[in-house]
Amino acid sequence: SLLLEYGADANIPKSSGHLPIHVAADKGHFLALKVLVPVTDIAAIKKSGISPVHCAAAGAHPHCLELLIQAGFDVNFMLDQRIRKHYDDQRKSALYFAVSNGDLPSVKLLLSAGALPNQDPVNCLQIALRMGNYELISLLLRHGANVNYFCRVNPLHFPSALQYTLKDEVMLRMLLNYGYDTERCFDCPHGERVHRFCTFEGWTSTVIKDTMFCEVITLSWLQHLSGKVVRVMLDYVDQVQICSKLKAVLEKQRLWPEIHFILTNPRSLQHLCRLKIRKCMGRLRLRCPVFMSFLPLPNLLKAYVLYKEYDLFGQERSTGTW
Q1: What pLDDT is stored for residue 199 in this prediction?
Q2: Low-confidence ranges of the chain (pLDDT < 50)
Q3: Of residues 250, 156, 162, 160, the one with CA closest to residue 212
Q4: Which of 173, 194, 226, 260 has the lowest tally of Cβ within 10 angstroms?
Q5: Tell me, what CATH number does 90's domain have?
């Protein structure tokens, strides 16, 4: 305050391009930030390529973040390319910083202020899934995180999020309840034919390709999970065919009799109606269940359409387990 009173300029950056407001936000100096907000030029902030919102999120200072949001700073201001290049993941949003820190209060503030969860090259949901943070995952999903994202460096045929949930039914159900494209997991060009394992001369077997779910879940170190994962998935699909490779592994699993019964018998009309309603809604609306309030349906039916009976995290949270 004294420096500003005697003519100090809050809009002169240091050699790194950061302004005083950036440093105050990053260090969590709330009172200094409060003084700097009204005297800092927005044009100077844009020129710097980074918002103080990024800095407050990176430093895990929700009190500073709240001050900046109340002052009208844009929560969707994206890092300039010259700043992003210093991060291996090419992150852009303030939300990504908060999610990476596992900073739930900051994530809540940003999402409530309108932060978009699908703006970064590496999806914010992917980071939360890696952490196994149920609260963070649930929060992102409720605010429209895309469960069907594809990781750029991942050669999978099915949306990438699934690979983090194979050992955790709670997370798996979260994805499926919010519209994960389960049907792609049962795609296979071989069908009932024998799967040929082949490599190309000069290439390893890990050459980038469109890797099918059956190729992943039948790996020797994942086979023991196949029965449970496939059984859960069957709650979210119509009649499906499983390929010979997946079937050979499933037949050795404890849940095979139940899986076989589902695969070889017609699905119930109730189940098919739920799938049809969800398809008519579309995945964008499933990602934002607030749209359900506009449907002229009883609350029990809305809960059924949203698979509330399989919302394991919500059920455990309501009983106080977490």
Answers
A1: 44
A2: 198-208
A3: 156
A4: 194
A5: 1.25.40.20
